[in-house]
Amino acid sequence: MAIKHIVGVFLFSTLSACIVNAQTPVIYDVRKYGANSGADISQALSKAWKEACESTIPSKIVIPKDIFILSQVKLEGPNKAPIELEVQGTLKAFPDPNQLPDKKGQWITINYLNYFTLSGGGVFDGQGQTAWKMNDCHKNKNCPKLPYNLSFNFINNSIIHDVTTKDSKNFHVNCISSHNVTFRHFTISAPDESPNTNGIHLGRSTGINIIDSIIRTGDDCVSIGDDTKEVHIQNVTCGPGHGISIGSLGGYATEKDVVGIYVKNCTFIGTQNGVRVKTWPSTPAQLSITNLNFEDLIMDNVSNPIIIDQEYCPHNLCKRDRPSFIKISTVNLKNIRGTTNSEEAVTLLCSNLKPCENVVVGDIDLKYNGNRGPITTKCVNVKPTYVGKQNPPLCAPIAHSV
Ligand SMILES: *[C@@H]1O[C@H](CO)[C@@H](O)[C@H](O)[C@H]1NC(C)=O
Ligand SMILES: *[C@@H]1O[C@H](CO)[C@@H](O)[C@H](O)[C@H]1NC(C)=O
Ligand SMILES: *[C@@H]1O[C@H](CO)[C@@H](O)[C@H](O)[C@H]1NC(C)=O
Ligand SMILES: *[C@@H]1O[C@H](CO)[C@@H](O)[C@H](O)[C@H]1NC(C)=O
Ligand SMILES: *[C@@H]1O[C@H](CO)[C@@H](O)[C@H](O)[C@H]1NC(C)=O
Ligand SMILES: CC(=O)N[C@H]1CO[C@H](CO)[C@@H](O)[C@@H]1O
């Protein structure tokens, strides 16, 4: 049995070595397509990309270790064989978003691909400092639309690993209509005060994994939009920023369900929220949000470690005449510990029209590190089931003095 196993391993490794050899990718170095140090490489990259997409054997486009300008680029499929973009160097955006050739476009758009890999240890530097000053969207509905850093749309079976995106002008990464995509060793950094610089925004996607990553930003660490299923977020450190958020949802009548979100083994450092679900009141959307699993989370000086808010209405930009139509069910909150800097540590504020159902909480251990009174929790239209320890007691009935 043991010998058979060893032979098996030997055969397997020989075989996989052959496969790897057979699949050694063809290299497309952007320097061969006219990329020069310090200059705009958009055209060189587009040319190399086009040729690589035509390759019927795996291809790899290499951006070497150097500093380049990238004005704007759209890298699109279909690709005929697995395709990799290896960014070893630093790609800098123009500081002023008005310099984008296509002002309506994003900085880097990656569309319609199957078996795509983005790798290389390089940096996408959005140079957002100028653009952030132009962002007044919190008070102006017609604010100028700023570009995202990386926009992935319609990509399947793909891996984005060992790259950094910093100082995006708006959301760092947008991943829409994609299936089976893994972000790994992915670093995002932008300062606390940068507006709307969500780390990774997901929407209309299935099977997205965000693992072993660090996300420091001014807005949500990961935000999950409608029609998104099977998202696994594991070993991610968030902070600064607004934490991991499902929603906001309910803004549009056509929105579809969010199902199967797993946030495991993550750490939140100084974030506004830990895990959050937010839905607008008074909206026509009737979707449901179900099977949410928040487990093994560490909160370090977080304002709202756990929050379900079905009356989400920032800057009062909504009507409140009716409750949310969105149903939230099957929520598991397990082993969540650490410190909070607001006395109201846990808020489960569900819709009075569609109360939250099947909420299970266990092994909560949160300490309030301030001095505005005892730690509390707030629960509305929800009756959780308890397993394990509760500190503070979640949704404790108000103590009546006799
Ligand atoms: C990705 O997968 C979806 C769902 O299976 C499919 O509709 C789409 O055509 C695929 N896209 C690519 C680029 O392979
Ligand atoms: C998901 O994508 C990865 C990376 O390309 C691939 O290895 C894996 O086989 C895909 N999984 C499925 C179920 O297709
Ligand atoms: C968690 O992610 C960090 C950051 O990428 C990494 O250094 C660490 O090795 C990961 N931990 C595990 C257990 O994989
Ligand atoms: C979870 O995090 C702990 C501490 O950082 C680490 O030791 C453990 O390997 C992690 N587990 C997974 C599955 O990432
Ligand atoms: C905790 O967060 C509060 C509010 O964000 C901040 O003022 C304080 O300095 C933080 N404390 C530590 C120890 O980081
Ligand atoms: C997708 C996108 O374009 N986001 C930003 C990424 O970073 C650079 C710098 O901000 C910006 O130019 C991009 O707009």
Automatic annotation (TrEMBL):
Signal peptide extent: 1-22
* GO-annotated biological processes: carbohydrate metabolic process; cell wall organization
Pfam families hit by this protein: Glyco_hydro_28
Cite the GO molecular-function annotations of the record: polygalacturonase activity
Q: Which UniProt keywords apply?
A: Cell wall, Cell wall biogenesis/degradation, Glycosidase, Hydrolase, Secreted, Signal
Q: Does the keyword Iron apply?
A: no
The active site lies at H242
Q: Which SMART domains match?
A: PbH1 (SM00710)
- For the keyword Hydrolase, the answer is yes
Subcellular locations according to the entry: Secreted, Cell wall
**Family, per the entry?**
Belongs to the glycosyl hydrolase 28 family.
Q: Which PANTHER family match?
A: PTHR31375
Q: What is this protein called?
A: Polygalacturonase
